[in-house]
Design a protein that fits this description.
Number of domains: 1
Pfam family, one: Gcw_chp
Keywords: Signal
Distance between the termini: 17 Å
Radius of gyration: 21 Å
Number of helices: 1
CATH architecture: Beta Barrel
CATH class: Mainly Beta
Number of strands: 18
Largest sheet: 12 strands, antiparallel, barrel
Oligomer: single chain
Strand content: over 45%
Length: 267
């Protein structure tokens, strides 16, 4: 799920080797130093791809994958991709690819920071007549601060996309959010909470054209075992539920309440 989508960061891994014999008469434990550059990633499937509370896959399953290249300095680059649906995003095609790069650092006192730049790319976008690609892509800088105390992590952050970009038109966009996670001691279970506020070009999903913001929130839990993560999450928004031609407006824009599940494998 990107809602923690989004909120991107680098993963740090260490490599170790078992003891080996230096001489015939003795053996010594040895550990290789962590490599300067590591490559990590994951792939999986979710029952509904929700971006800031709104379905991008027409409330159906979506395949997703990510690859990160991380440097020991804290610098990182990566890409994240997901299938999407034309029914949810007319003219955007059937795929979303996010390219990103940034810097992350965790201090000894448990405080962490993450800053970077996202580029949303829709490589299969076409206009309604099947002609040239639509102007759908845009950049979005992001920044966040998090604090870890024991099994609990609290994170606050924001994403801002300036106006004048092809995918946004003459409006800018601001997304502010907070995430909380807590691992239950002596178990592989993690509890997750999220709340976010969209404003501007990506926040105009209400009947009132002057209302250009909405809230999204979620509560969930996940279990991680041997590289696999299995999760379930309740997702909702405050997009208006007023009925339009017999359907709730929130249903029409994919912002209705739902319970989704996901499974990923990290490498």
């Amino acid at each position: 799920m990107r809602f923690s989508m989004i909120s991107l960061g680098a993963l740090a891994l260490a490599a170790a080797t078992p003891a080996f014999a230096q001489e015939a008469s003795e053996a010594t434990d040895a550990t290789e130093p962590a490599p300067a550059v590591t490559v990590t990633g994951s792939f999986g499937v979710t029952t509904d791809y929700r971006f800031r509370g709104l379905s991008q896959s027409n409330k159906k399953a979506a395949g997703q994958a990510t690859v990160n290249v991380n440097h020991e300095s804290g610098l990182y680059v990566g890409t994240w991709a997901s299938t999407i649906s034309e029914n949810s995003l007319p003219g955007y095609g059937e795929a979303e690819v996010d390219l990103y790069g940034g810097y992350t650092k965790t201090f000894d006192n448990g405080l962490g920071v993450d800053v970077g730049l996202l580029y949303y790319l829709y490589p299969l976008s076409r206009d309604t007549l099947g002609g040239v690609a639509n102007d759908t892509d845009f950049f979005e800088p992001y920044a966040s601060v998090n604090y870890t105390l024991g099994p609990v992590n609290v994170k606050v952050g924001g994403n801002y996309a300036w106006s004048g970009q092809a995918g946004l038109g003459d409006q800018d966009s601001l997304y502010l959010y907070s995430n909380v996670s807590a691992t239950i001691p002596n178990t592989p279970v993690k509890l997750l909470g999220h709340v976010g506020r969209s404003d501007g070009a990506l926040g105009a999903f209400n009947l009132d054209p002057a209302d250009e913001n909405y809230l999204d929130w979620s509560l969930g839990a996940e279990v991680a075992v041997q590289g696999f993560t299995l999760g379930v999450s309740y997702v909702d928004t405050d997009v208006t539920n007023q009925r339009v031609f017999g359907d709730k407006f929130s249903d029409l824009v994919g912002g209705n309440a739902t319970v989704l599940g996901y499974i990923t494998y990290a490498f």
